[in-house]
Amino acid sequence: MEKLEALFDHIASRVNVNLSPMGVDVRSLLKNAIPRERHLLYYAFYALTEDHPISFQFSNSNLAGTYLLGKTLVDRSVLYKANIRGDELKRKGDIVEFNGVKTMLFYDEVIRIINSFLVKTLVHNHSKNPEVPEVFRILNTVAMHYSNIHGTTTEGVYLGAFSTADLSVMHNCIIGDFAYVQAGDLSRVTIEPGRVWVKANGLFEFNYIYPKGVVEKYVKLDDNGQLSGVFIDYVDEFKEDFIPIYSTATPELDIEVPESSYVSPYAVIKGDCEIGENTLIVQRAHVENSVIGRGANAQENCYIKNSIYEGNNVTAHGGKVIWTHNGKNVFVGFNSFVHGTKENQITIGRDSIIMPHTIIDAEEPIKIPVNSIVWGYVTKQEDLETQSMSLCDFAKSTGFTLGNATFTGDGKAFVEAFRHRISHIREENGSDYDGTDETRGHAQKTQDACFNILQPFQSGPEAGMYPTMTIGD
Amino acid sequence: MEKLEALFDHIASRVNVNLSPMGVDVRSLLKNAIPRERHLLYYAFYALTEDHPISFQFSNSNLAGTYLLGKTLVDRSVLYKANIRGDELKRKGDIVEFNGVKTMLFYDEVIRIINSFLVKTLVHNHSKNPEVPEVFRILNTVAMHYSNIHGTTTEGVYLGAFSTADLSVMHNCIIGDFAYVQAGDLSRVTIEPGRVWVKANGLFEFNYIYPKGVVEKYVKLDDNGQLSGVFIDYVDEFKEDFIPIYSTATPELDIEVPESSYVSPYAVIKGDCEIGENTLIVQRAHVENSVIGRGANAQENCYIKNSIYEGNNVTAHGGKVIWTHNGKNVFVGFNSFVHGTKENQITIGRDSIIMPHTIIDAEEPIKIPVNSIVWGYVTKQEDLETQSMSLCDFAKSTGFTLGNATFTGDGKAFVEAFRHRISHIREENGSDYDGTDETRGHAQKTQDACFNILQPFQSGPEAGMYPTMTIGD
Lengths: 473, 473
Fold this sequence. Notes:
Two copies of one chain form a homodimer. Chain A has 473 residues and is α/β, with parallel strands linked by helices.
């Protein structure tokens, strides 16, 4: 495994060049986060569909357990059980608009990941970066367990466990565990753990910081890359369910799925579930004893248990929804933990928004009124007084401080931006599919996907490394 | 499936250009041999090991169910459940000798398969062609079910079902069902079904032709590519056993295998089996209730049932050995059918050679003395009188006619050539492995193989086709 070891060294030095001035040294994280032999154990897989132009290319990389969809370039990187989804990459000839300036793409957008270490990271692209719109970049970056990278650039970044960089740019910065940033250029900035920061330049800014001690209870990553806390205990409980699926070349589903919907063969569907029309359940989603209503979807690393989705619901990457009744159009943001129990169930009224990185850990039954927005840390009904607001009131606001949250700017623009985004997600996912080409989304386009399984060398100096591969184009 | 259809057309026209002057039109064979949807169903897989230089490259091809090991190039070809084994390819810098002239390889030898249709064909290389030693060619060729191509060139060739071209050159020629040729340039030659022809220019020539009606009983391929006969009934019986193996990404063996041996995860081992040291059992071999003694091996498409191999036995590609006791060093050639039953068992004495394409279909117990050579069609003990000989007598012969067999030339050279070849096979397979690098063979080198699984597009005009892929180099 000499070459794999050298690759780890190489990545560490590349990342440290950018981040050590800020007091970060990723060397021991990289050394210890994942036992080396695990990098031999898992295979990468790569979907082929007629809708996604492919150009998969990598060399000198380790891709253990990684899922890739759409155009990609990866080299000298370690991707461990990451999900690299290129199904919203822009195409050659597309016209994109940034800040009112239109520009045309010279070639199909690609995902470039170079000298990076991504562990269980979700990379899903809908890039918003005017610098080079053809390249979705993630360079010299370390992204820890269950972090999300949604709209690059990135570059010399450290992302903590369960953290999210959303419609991001960024550059050599540090995102703490469970922090959420919408980003922009954050060069030389350190974002503390558990900060939720949504900012649109000149328009609005939302800020929330978790109370002291809360983040550590849910996510704690030590210097050796060992993760503990409620989140990891929760997801570890369901680890085993993925094993039979991932040891089968063409796993088969044991549940009825309407023709207009797609349930990935690499998702777990357990117990008594109902899958509606136009739904999308992607790989590494885990759904148990739940009803997924028409037009709803569940993204990577979602855990949905004993819950009802009335329809058109979105559960963003890493969202966990347990013993919860979701009205129509309810949106649950990235890595949110909506954790009811049989005794203490949660009800979320229609059109409500659970912001990214919200924890609702019910110690009593909790009822969220229709058309609400919820953020932060909620364990009791009364917590909603300072951690939520009606979306009508929010839209009228020009600024407020409520509990640990502050908002400045145009409330209407904030609400509209959110609504616009949710409707974009639904559209992309094919929620409104009516049989026409224009309404086809991921649920329909991914249906005929087949999977290439790629395994690393198992012995010798190359053990754990993949051969150079070029697929497509 | 427009592109796949066009590919079939293209292959048919390329092959017919060479073969239609000889009265062959492969168009309806290609159209009907395999239902089109099957080409979508099966995946190709490709082994990575540290010992086999790889450069897998293909485009516009269908590879349904095909296994590839070692350097390859394939394009505009249909390979259906073929085994393409490149584990004896020569390497850059190797010195090869042909007819006393030495030459050095400029680059690693590759397998080139272009505009060909190979169905369940075994391609295993140990090429003997001085024309271009760097390229193992099979161009514009149609090879039907369970045919074997062992040492190319080939080129504009039609190979019938269960036929074998061994240390071959050939060029636009026709090899009938179940015919075996050692080859050389056979341009514009038609080999009738069931002919077994071994020739070394200027040294010796062996010829056997099956009695009228026998070949048809065992193998019959109609103009529509539909196969019938005892052979196909026999192998079809065990088809189901391969399904669970081929639907698993990393199939696991349920049997104890010594460290010095290799049993492919894509072989079937059923019932009560014993696997000795230094044995090799490759993909698509089927072994049931048998003892595979030290240093023995079973090649692709072998079926071994209720049999004992005392040790150092070779069963060449497609050999079937049922209710047979094999003494030490017994060799069973390509596609031979050594078919005993519980009541009518077969015993083969040590050091004996069952020639390629021999049928021993026992209607009574049959005992083959030590150090014999057997050929042709044997159903009773007395048939051995005209279908076998002691190897000592053969070595003294300068020519004979016996039943349907004729031999001319130097018997000693013939026996020595065979012995030399068998010992080469054993050596290559690692039968004599003693822990040293020099004695490592396939059994040892393939141990850490891991498998890339490649699936074709499932829908749209590209359905059944593979994307352009380059792996390695």
